[in-house]
């Protein structure tokens, strides 16, 4: 046993050096081609929807970290096996490492935007891994022969250092490359009204009326932050159009800009969940851009939008063009779009869940039919028609909180985009009657609304529930539904203890 353990470590170390240096090579060429990221993204794409939903429920926004961790753990386990095998059969051990590299290479090359250069990190790993393993095996045998471990330890230390330099160097290079470029944001022809002051200062623990960009939730199928330059960016409108049109970023900025406060919501948000945010978006009306190409409504029923990497989102054409404020956005809360949120251009369409409307890094709008072309999530059996459901969330107190008796302020947010906004929010204690909560200021029908309710809390354990009614007079449904396939529903209810 004792004699074997070092060999497992050699396999792991050889692999860490290979992965570290491959990561650095990827950072210098295309960060998305890094072996761990490429394999991770492929795992995401291949994971069946129910399992993905389970992972999002279990791990929340940590799901990506856990995914990358699991991929790494799996790789290192196989690496240890490769090391153990190398003890007797070096070539076979190296062969296992090469098989791992081959998986990474296939993953990197199977991305829609893959280029031949994306093979470079795998080539680096294919050379470094076996060479490092051979070096460790040789030094081990030498150490066994002459009884001195000095060279072996030095070799191990040098390889560990190389792995660290590769991994950290890759990080530094990637973060330098993903630094935002500065663009001058145009002024809107149609500015939004000043957003009223919300209840942020009045109700401790309530969600802020405007979500700061750095706190805005993120949902991506990819693991890295894309680097798309505004100079290389173009938007093509094609498919069932009178004439195909391609716009540059400057041409887009020259079009009339509108500014709107819109609350974005993810279909994967469970009742009471965090995947919702309110921001001020600046951009061009989607219909203005579509009109440049002239759409053939006798044929097309969907807008298939494609991001710079080939990821697709489909939007019902009739809903996107029914007069709502669908925007090709370049600005978010007075700043250019952050890279994480789609720099340089993304779609924002009020009232539709993000997965059928909010394409980030968008580069193509194809007018087509649901019969002819299927988008990423359509392929995975999610709904194609998914208006955002009316929802209310309790932000404070937190579930299972221990409270002092006396006046407790219950507060949260509610949203009913493209349904006339929020007309009423009601709170229920311990299954009793519904009482009207007080609404915060109105930020427009497509924006969420803060609310609060004073509750004279008495000792014991209590259940707090909330529901909303839309401006169109539609009450939020109490019927429970999971996020798949068209959004969660049900009442948000939580338990607290009053001392
Ligand atoms: N290119 C691209 N656009 C995308 C996604 C994506 O994975 N890739 N995710 C979508 C989903 S599911 C949602 S909810 C919103 C989230 O936008 P945000 O990350 O800016 O909050 O973006 C949408 N646009
Ligand atoms: Mo989403």
What does this molecule look like?
- With 499 residues, this protein is α+β, with helices and mostly antiparallel strands.
- The chain folds into 3 domains: 5-177, no CATH class; 213-380, Oxidoreductase, molybdopterin-binding domain (Sulfite Oxidase, Chain A, domain 2), CATH 3.90.420; 391-498, Immunoglobulin-like, CATH 2.60.40.650.
- Helices cover 33% and strands 23% of the residues.
- It has 11 helices and 19 strands.
- It has helices at 5-28, 35-46, 49-59, 63-86, 90-109, 120-146, 150-177, 249-253, 286-293, 317-320, 376-379; strands spanning 234-239, 245-248, 257-265, 276-285, 302-307, 312-316, 327-332, 335-336, 346-348, 362-368, 391-396, 402-403, 406-415, 422-429, 434-436, 438-439, 449-457, 460-470, 492-498.
- Strands 2-1-10-5-6 form a 5-stranded mixed beta sheet. Strands 3, 4, 7, 8 and 9 form a 5-stranded antiparallel beta sheet that branches.
- β5 and β6 form a beta hairpin.
- It is globular.
- The model has no long low-confidence stretch (mean pLDDT 94).
- Bound molecules: the ligand Nc1nc2c(c(=O)[nH]1)N[C@H]1C(S)=C(S)[C@@H](COP(=O)(O)O)O[C@H]1N2 and molybdenum atom.
- This is Oxidoreductase.
């Amino acid at each position: 046993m004792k004699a074997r353990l070092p060999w497992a470590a050699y396999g792991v170390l050889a692999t860490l050096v290979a992965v570290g240096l491959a990561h650095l090579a990827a950072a210098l060429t295309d960060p998305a081609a890094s072996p761990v990221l490429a394999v991770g993204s492929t795992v995401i794409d291949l994971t069946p929807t129910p399992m993905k939903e389970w992972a999002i429920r279990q791990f929340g926004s940590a799901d990506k970290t856990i995914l990358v961790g699991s991929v790494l753990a799996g790789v290192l386990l196989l690496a240890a096996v490769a090391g153990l095998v190398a003890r007797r059969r070096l070539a076979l051990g190296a062969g296992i490492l090469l098989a791992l590299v081959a998986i990474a290479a296939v993953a990197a090359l199977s991305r829609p935007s893959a280029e031949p250069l994306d093979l470079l990190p795998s080539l680096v790993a294919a050379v470094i891994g076996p060479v490092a393993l051979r070096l460790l095996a040789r030094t081990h045998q030498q150490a066994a022969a002459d009884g001195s471990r000095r060279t072996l330890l030095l070799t191990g230390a040098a390889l560990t250092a190389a792995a660290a330099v590769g991994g950290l160097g890759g990080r530094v290079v990637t973060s330098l490359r993903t630094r935002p470029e500065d663009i001058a944001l145009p002024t809107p022809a149609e500015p939004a009204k000043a957003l009223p002051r919300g209840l942020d200062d009045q109700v401790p623990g309530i969600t802020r009326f405007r979500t700061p960009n750095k706190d805005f939730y993120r949902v991506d199928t990819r693991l890295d932050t894309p680097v798309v330059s505004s100079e290389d960016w173009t938007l093509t409108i094609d498919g069932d159009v009178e004439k195909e049109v391609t716009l540059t970023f400057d041409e887009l900025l020259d079009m009339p800009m509108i500014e709107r406060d819109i609350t974005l919501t993810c279909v994967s948000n469970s009742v009471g969940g965090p995947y919702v945010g309110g921001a001020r978006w600046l951009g061009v009306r989607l219909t203005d851009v579509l009109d440049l190409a002239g759409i053939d409504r006798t044929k097309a029923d969907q807008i298939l939008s494609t991001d710079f990497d080939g990821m697709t989102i489909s939007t019902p054409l009739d809903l996107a063009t029914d007069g709502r404020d669908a925007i090709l956005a370049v600005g978010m809360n007075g700043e250019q779009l952050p890279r994480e949120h789609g720099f340089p251009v993304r779609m924002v369409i009020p009232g539709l869940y993000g997965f059928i409307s909010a394409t980030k890094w968008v580069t193509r709008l194809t007018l087509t039919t649901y019969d002819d072309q299927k988008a990423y999530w359509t392929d995975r059996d999610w709904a194609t028609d998914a208006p955002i459901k009316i929802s209310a969330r309790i932000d404070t107190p937190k579930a299972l909180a221990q409270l002092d008796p006396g006046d407790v302020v219950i507060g949260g947010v509610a949203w009913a985009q493209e349904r006339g906004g929020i007309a009423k929010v009601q709170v229920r204690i311990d299954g009793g009657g519904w009482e009207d909560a007080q609404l915060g200021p109105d930020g427009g029908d497509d924006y969420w609304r803060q609310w609060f309710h004073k509750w004279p809390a008495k000792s014991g354990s209590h259940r707090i529930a909330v529901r909303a009614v839309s401006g169109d007079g539609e009450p939020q449904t109490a019927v429970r539904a999971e996020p798949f396939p068209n959004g969660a529903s049900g009442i948000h209810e939580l338990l607290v203890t009053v001392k």
